[in-house]
Amino acid sequence: MERPTDARSDRRTPVPVTKPEDMSRAFVAALNAGDLKSLLSLYDPQVRYVTRSGKIVEGHAGVRATLERLLAAKGQMRIDNTYCLVSGDTALVRAQWSFNGIGQDDKPIESHGNSAEVLRRGSDRIWRYLIDHPFGAM
């Protein structure tokens, strides 16, 4: 299967998330546009991210490597929020997601899951992922 032409870029200006229920929409928009800069802006510098294998990566450096691999699949993601609970500057968000892309072997890949995320609102009033577990709500 031929990979789609990559018209995506990471030169967009990140859009700040001011409501936790908008986080999934911002993530999908940035991912589907191939916008690494915007994706990274959604994560708190102290983020902890749980990979599919259960490994925990920390900080922007760890998340960057994970997001770069996801972007390399040149896919499209869909996310439907299923739950959002806010307490002060902390929010718990759950969602169902699906992803379709192209693997390193040029074959189609499909993945889906139920995520659990903890968001934190910073002093700038912007929400960011503090904990991201794409498979945490299975």
TrEMBL record:
Record-annotated SnoaL-like domain positions: 25-128
InterPro entries tied to this protein: NTF2-like_dom_sf (IPR032710), SnoaL-like (IPR037401)
Source taxon at top rank: Bacteria
Region feature Disordered, mapped onto this chain: 1-20
Pfam families given in the database record: SnoaL_2 (PF12680)
Name assigned to this protein: SnoaL-like domain-containing protein
Organism: Candidatus Muproteobacteria bacterium RBG_16_60_9
Higher taxonomy: Bacteria, Pseudomonadati, Pseudomonadota, Candidatus Muproteobacteria
